[in-house]
Specification:
The chain is an alpha/beta fold. Strand 6 and strand 7 form a beta hairpin. The protein binds nicotinamide-adenine-dinucleotide.
Length: 478
């Protein structure tokens, strides 16, 4: 074991505790697969303990005042700002983030916690008219109870901060099950919330393998709402469990997001959008534009400009702000990316740039002549690989852009407002961006997708719904 590798337990009731059976999970540095940390390998008993603690906490926490919850959230944002470098280092060393992505994620997370402050006073209700004389009728909104927050490896701080902060803002408490690839980040975040003053047990973290212990969390009778971000296959499984157990569920799943470039687009902006929109975090983003459609009139010029920029994306030291491409998180993900590239090559696609590996890093890869027989055509590659297609008219590209089971984000570059609005109207996706990349997020927007990309939305307003319950109350006055 590397001398400086951390050893950490679960975070339950504001204490670091080992797994009930003493099991240990290794967290590796994706750059070279060296040991980064050893954490508790959670068991069903650990989940049960964490949920019971969160439930015990809820009974007191739901009575905390708006002023208290606002103060704790403000303090948490302030502490994250102060400890930014510590979190950036974890995102780089445990998650393989580049410095640029880690800085972006940390700053976003600070913003998300600040935005959660605004939820606190919206846990409210309204008065209603009534069919009955003398009746005062009203609604109350109340926190649901314990929320299960299940997060992926690629944006672990954004997801943990937004969802835990939003849940705690409403008066709910939470159990966080972070990705087995990025556990330390979640444990450090829980410590930060303790330092911000949140009561003991309000946020509990169980580390371990979701495939082993996730069902115990989702199906636990004391869990009232589940918010899951991850792959579509796991999301659909969780949705079934929630249906059987009658729980509220929000699913933020995968994407195969189209980016369309019309012949009247500003080509320089479109190239930039297709670089940032595809290769941020080496393509490991749910909203990455892994399909780019270019009008035939500008196709040759676009490909030339695009390949030139893409082939020069920095693959140096992760701490260097010029580095754009970092390592792929795990062997499982690397194998999928390799399979997609090889499969496309064998079936006749051409590799305009990339397709090569340097250790655990895959060079930014542009595939041309991709067809429906190839895996990269339909499946989420979740790596630095983009398929660039040519089209000749708007109706054709609209059809192609909608030819996917996914429907998360999408983008179009054009100077024709009518085309832009027709695209926004016609595209089957939860999010549409005109003249900017498909990768973007803000605290208060309804973030999420349709089809295999998810169920429900997240964001301050959507999470208020997800983490609270409405109650109808009447008073007969005469
Ligand atoms: P994953 O589905 O493998 O894992 C996500 C989380 O689910 C992990 O914490 C894992 O341990 C846990 N898990 C696994 N089985 C479980 C079960 N039965 N019950 C409960 N939890 C279980 O996904 P990943 O590889 O970590 O992340 C990549 C995927 O996430 C991609 O498909 C990506 O598009 C998606 N994603 C979506 C969004 C979004 O907002 N729509 C954001 C980021 C990532």
């Amino acid at each position: 074991m590397a001398e400086d590798a951390m050893v950490m337990g679960h975070w339950i009731a504001n204490e670091s505790v080992p797994a009930s059976d003493g099991g240990v999970l290794k967290s590796l540095n994706p750059l070279d697969d060296s040991l980064y940390a050893e954490v508790a390998d959670g068991t069903a008993d650990d989940i049960d303990r964490a949920v019971r603690e969160a439930h015990a906490a809820f009974l007191a926490y739901k009575e905390t005042t708006t002023t208290e919850r606002e103060a704790w959230l403000c303090k948490a944002a302030e502490l994250l700002e102060q400890r930014k470098e510590e979190f950036i280092a974890i995102l780089i060393n445990e998650g393989g983030s580049t410095r640029r992505k880690a800085e972006f994620e940390t700053n976003k997370s600070i913003g998300f916690i600040r935005a959660a402050v605004g939820i606190v006073r919206q846990v409210s209700g309204k008065t209603l008219p009534s069919d009955y004389p003398g009746r005062i009728s009203m609604t109350w909104r109340a926190p649901r109870g314990v929320v299960a927050v299940i997060t992926p490896f690629n944006v672990p701080l954004i997801k943990a901060s937004r969802l835990c902060a939003n849940a705690l803002a409403t008066g709910s408490t939470a159990v966080l099950l972070p990705s087995e690839e990025h556990p330390v980040l979640a444990l450090k975040f829980a410590e930060l919330l303790k330092d911000a003053g949140f009561p003991s047990n309000a946020l509990n973290v169980v580390t371990g393998n979701g495939y082993k212990i996730g069902d115990c969390l989702t199906a636990h009778p004391l869990i009232k709402s589940v918010t899951f971000t991850g792959s579509t296959v796991v999301g659909k499984h969780i949705q079934q469990l929630c249906a059987i157990n009658n729980k509220h569920v929000t699913l933020e799943l995968g994407g195969k997001n189209p980016l369309v470039i019309m012949d009247d687009a500003n080509l320089k902006d479109a190239v930039q959008g297709a670089v940032r929109g595809v290769f941020m975090h080496q393509g490991q983003a749910c909203v990455s534009s892994s399909r780019v459609y270019v009008h035939e009139k500008v196709f040759p010029a676009f490909v030339e400009m695009y390949v030139k920029v893409v082939s020069n994306l920095g693959m140096g030291d992760l701490n260097d702000p010029d580095t754009i491409i970092g390592p792929v998180i795990s062997e499982r993900q690397r194998q999928r990316i390799k399979l997609h590239i090889e499969d496309a090559r064998e079936k006749g696609a051409s590799v305009a740039t990339g397709g090569t590996w340097d250790g655990n890093r895959c060079a930014a890869t542009v595939l041309l002549n991709v067809n429906a027989e190839m895996k990269a055509f339909r499946e989420e590659t979740f790596g630095p690989v983009v398929c660039v297609y040519i089209f000749s008219d708007f109706d054709e590209v609209m059809k192609e852009a909608n030819d996917s089971n996914y429907g998360l984000s999408s983008a179009i570059y054009t100077s024709n407002i009518h085309r832009a609005m027709a695209y926004a109207k016609g595209i089957e996706a939860g999010m549409v961006h005109i003249n900017s990349p498909s990768i973007t997020d803000e605290a208060h927007v309804p973030f999420g997708g349709v089809g295999d990309s998810g169920f429900g939305r997240e964001g301050t307003e959507a999470d208020l719904e997800a983490f609270t319950e409405l109650k109808w109350v009447t008073i007969q006055t005469d």
